[in-house]
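Form P-L/3: holo structure prediction, ligand adenosine-5'-diphosphate.
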Amino acid sequence: MASENLLELNDIEAGYGRAALVLRGLTVKVPAGSVVCLVGPNGAGKSTVLKVASGMLAPRSGSIVVDGEEVTGSGPQSMIRHGLSHVLQGHSVFKEMTVAENVSLGAYTVKDKAEVQERVEFVKNLFPVVADRWAALAGALSGGQQKQVEFARSLMVSPKVVLLDEPSMGLDPKTTSVVFEQVVRMREAGIAVLLVEQNARRALETADIGCVLDLGRVHITGPAPELLEDPQLAELYLGGGGGTRDADPTEDPTPSEARSPELSSPAPERT
Ligand SMILES: Nc1ncnc2c1ncn2[C@@H]1O[C@H](COP(=O)(O)OP(=O)(O)O)[C@@H](O)[C@H]1O
Ligand SMILES: [Mg+2]
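OUTPUT (holo model):
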């Protein structure tokens, strides 16, 4: 893994309007060739981190550096040009349009037709389901397949770093695994990933580096496998020892799922 950072968010303070700050001195670094995962409970500010990184929300203070270049204060269009692509939380495919049309929308800033064609071949190769269902209406695809269409769309601008906001949301565990496999394939294709997840344990199993968000800062960061092994972290943020520890019913009558709903299985896919 190369050591230089493709994205640095340094000491970021950010919030909405006059409300209290959501991010209070947050620092996250995404090295080339890596998947960095930011975990934390609902409302912790995970999506806010990605909005700051993609220029949707200007930070009050701190700096954003992309591949060595300071880009703090750039808007979304400029951030795309600098190499950041953002896959928003929730489902954003246009169901009445074909997969081809959805993916092509991602290239609306790319003028060179040959380059667009090259990117189409790249994403079809990376996401076989996108190639197989190219002419189908996006609404006819399952939720997991639609997520891959969103991934493909985000890669049409040849990003250096992709920002993924809760890609597993609303997907069943099996489909979630497929989507996380595709995240690994993006890394293998040379794209760094900043992944945000409520599904902390599953995401840390996929990531190289984990960051735990608490009170608007990165509370703990380190190699993801080490975070998964840390008993205190598991207890506080990952809903106990998960599959590796037997629950002692005399210790706490509350099932760990009840304490940490974010770690229980996501709701079954509805689409
Ligand atoms: N557009 C917005 N306007 C005002 N407050 C917002 C907005 N979006 C998020 N917030 C608030 O910011 C905090 C962090 O939200 P968010 O980043 O979406 O958390 P997460 O993605 O970790 O669930 C929450 O308290 C939320 O209510
Ligand atoms: Mg969110």
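COMMENT: The chain has a mean pLDDT of 87.
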